[in-house]
């Protein structure tokens, strides 16, 4: 998984897998990408700072429960 933020265009992207995708627009400025099997491959959120409050919010990422279950 790759999470990236592009400050020039104020876009947050979460990529779950590299694949050829079909994009479905879920709401204004929010799009989901699906692979050929219909699995979620990525999400893009435009106007991220406006949606999340400020750029500092986008600098703090906490990952929990990553990896195989015990």
Beta strands, count: 5
- Please state the overall shape, judged from the principal axes of the Cα atoms: flat
Please compute the radius of gyration using only Cα atoms.
13 Å
Question: What portion of residues belong to β-strands?
Answer: 35-45%
Low-confidence stretches: none
Q: Describe the main β-sheet briefly.
A: 5 strands, antiparallel
Termini gap: 21 Å
Number of domains: 1
Which bin fits the share of residues in helices? 10-25%
What would you call the structural class? mainly beta
Taken in chain order, the helices and strands follow as: EEEEEHH
Strand line-up of the largest beta sheet:
1-2-5-4-3
**Total of DSSP H or I helical runs spanning 4+ residues:** 2
Mean pLDDT across all amino acids: 89
Description:
With 70 residues, this protein is mainly β. The protein is built from two helices and five strands; from the N terminus they run βββββαα. The chain has a five-stranded antiparallel beta sheet with strand order 1-2-5-4-3, with no helix packed on it. β3 and β4 form a beta hairpin. The protein starts with a strand and ends in an 11-residue tail after the last helix. This is DUF2283 domain-containing protein.
In short:
The protein is mainly beta. It has two helices and five strands, in the order βββββαα. A five-stranded antiparallel beta sheet has the order 1-2-5-4-3, with no helix packed on it.
List the helices and strands and how they pair.
Elements: E1 2-6, E2 11-15, E3 22-27, E4 30-34, E5 40-46, H1 48-52, H2 55-59
Antiparallel strand pairs: 1-2, 2-5, 3-4, 4-5
